[in-house]
Amino acid sequence: MRRISAFVLALLLATTASSAGDELIRLTGQLDTLWGDSAPGSGQGYRRILQLTTDDGRRIEVELGDGLARLGGVARWNGTRVEASLSVGEDKASGRPRIVALRSVPGSSGETSLRGVSGSVPWVTIPCKFADVADEPRNFTFFDGMYANLPGGLDHYWREVSYGIIDVVGSMAIDWVTLPNNQTHYIQIPGEGCFGSPDQQADLSALFADCTAAADALVDFSGGGAPFEGINLMFNSDLDGCAWGGSRFATLDGVSKSWRTTWEPPWGYANEGVMGHEMGHGMGLPHSNNSDGDGSPYDSPWDVMSSATGYSVSDPVYGSLGKHTISYHKESLGWITPGEIFEAPAGISVITIDQLALASTGNYRMARIPFDGFSYYTVEVRDLVGGYDGALPGNAVIIHEVVPGRSEPAWVVDGDDPPANYADTEGVMWRVGETFLDLDREIQVRVLAATADGFQVEIASGAVVTEIFRDGFENGDLSSWN
Ligand SMILES: [Zn+2]
After folding, report:
1. In the chain, N or C: fewer CB atoms in 10 Å?
2. Tens-level pLDDT at each residue, the chain (482 residues)
3. Ligand 1 center to residue 425 CA distance, Å?
4. Same structural domain for residues 386 and 301?
């Protein structure tokens, strides 16, 4: 780690030899985020890389300063061209340069921001074999069928999750191509590994470059004027223990942009929940978490971006399917419209929220209850319905605490003390008659009744919550407090 950070520092200093002594280095380029995920059930962790591809083609791993993190975090800047001011003093925790100021700047490739995703988002699947590994774990028919608009297919899945705002029409797969090098050429490079392993890290750049090059005769990445949005790289053997998803700035067939990209080992494409998770990272989504405070972001079964395959509907061909992602993530991508969000005012409100997998609703899809300026609770309803949410732990109101800027902004709220290790317990499922109370923040949510497609809830916010609590205490009526 020392050696790598010294190398990066040397790069930075070399760019500013004429201004030696300045504290900040200013660089222009494309900012991308990558997430490395350990296999479901492995008990291992994850890694997040924030990468600046400078205009002269260097890739530099960076960190985001705390202030910028609070102002929307990496999601706000992911996949965008920026002018970044980097602190030459290394980030104390990571040893990487730290971005202390950012602004978006226009690029020649037009709109490249990954914020908000709508319309057709075509992906291309490239199955790549290491030169020394002959296995073909799945065939062309499998990869091609994965994009179908049929139950279990990714086009069907993304349409349902986005309420028809996106699809993956135009996606395609090709048959296996072969990389020019052996497996160890791409994996055994010094580095931090995908979850801290000191001597095993996939060379994502080389894998991307060689796999897309091997497919170049078969794929027109420019799409004849309508370029692919995403690239699923399917490898025929393990990488560094992780599947990876995020965005990657590159020029392919004359198109320069951040390509939504996943790097999948065989266990990735064996379960479409993992594909959904990594493609979600490709759209800029972070993880969500439970509230147990451990280092794992894979312990909430309510989100494909947490426990990707836990409580999943099973498909005979495509394995554990993805479930929906949480309302916070859907809203961040523009899939929940402002009219479908109840922005809770101070006082007491009674509303109906429909379950999150419902195709259309005349009620609300979520409520948002602000506190501490930038933070808020989200209230959503989940039910065991449909082809993707059909195996969830229960039918209940689910509440998330959202703190922008932390690595998993949304943590599912658990009424039990201590919180469960895995958020499939009664403590996270708010049922009729139960009340969530955060007295410090003066926020209360009561589940009043079940409705046709969700629940009627009462939301109280502000001083009125303290009054309710005091009155209840004086009346000796605290029986309903969860
Ligand atoms: Zn992940």
Report:
1. N
2. 333 344 444 444 444 433 444 468 899 999 899 999 998 888 888 888 889 999 888 988 888 877 777 666 676 777 888 898 888 766 566 678 888 888 888 765 544 445 567 889 999 999 999 999 999 999 999 999 999 999 999 999 999 999 999 999 999 999 999 999 999 999 876 666 677 665 678 999 999 999 999 999 999 999 999 999 999 999 999 999 899 999 999 999 999 989 999 999 999 999 999 999 999 999 989 999 999 999 899 999 999 999 999 999 999 999 999 999 999 999 999 999 999 999 999 999 999 999 999 999 999 999 999 999 889 999 999 999 999 999 999 999 999 999 988 889 999 999 999 999 999 999 999 999 999 999 999 999 999 999 999 999 999 999 999 998 888 777 765 544 44
3. 23
4. no
173 CA to centre of ligand 1 in angstroms: 23
Collapsing DSSP states into helix, strand and coil, what is residue 297?
coil
- C-beta of residue 299 within 8 angstroms of C-beta of residue 422: yes
Residues 309 and 350 in one domain: no
Distance 115 CA to ligand 1 centre (A): 18
- Domain annotation covers residue 230: yes
pTM of the model: 0.91
Determine the distance separating the centroid of ligand 1 and the alpha carbon of 155, expressed in angstroms. Answer: 20
Q: How far is the CA of 37 from the centre of ligand 1 (A)?
A: 5
Do both 138 and 281 map to the same domain? yes
Burial profile 336-369: b = 16 or more Cβ within 10 angstroms, e = fewer: beeebbbebeeebbebbbbbbbbeebebbbbbbb
For residue 258, the CA-to-ligand 1 centroid distance in Å is 18
Q: Say how many Å lie between the CA of residue 345 and the centre of ligand 1.
A: 34
Do 310 and 173 sit in the same domain of this protein?
Answer: yes
User: Cα of 2 to ligand 1 centre, how many Å?
Assistant: 26
User: Where are any strands of DSSP class E within 287-433?
Assistant: 314-315, 319-320, 341-343, 347-354, 366-371, 375-382, 396-402, 410-412
Question: What domain range includes position 273?
Answer: 119-320
309 found inside a domain? yes
Q: Which CATH number belongs to the domain containing residue 283 in this structure? A: 3.40.390
Question: What burial letters (b/e) apply to 436-453, b meaning 16+ CB within 10 Å?
Answer: bbbeebbbbbbbeeeeeb
* 264: in domain: yes
Quick check: is 356 in a domain? yes
Residues 215 and 140 in one domain: yes
Q: How far is the CA of 287 from the centre of ligand 1 (A)?
A: 6
- The protein residues having their C-beta less than 5 angstroms from ligand 1 (an ion) are 35, 37
| Tokens representing residue 83 in the block | 């002018």
CA angle 98, 101, 106 (to 5 degrees): 115
In the 8-state DSSP scheme, what is residue 322? Answer: P
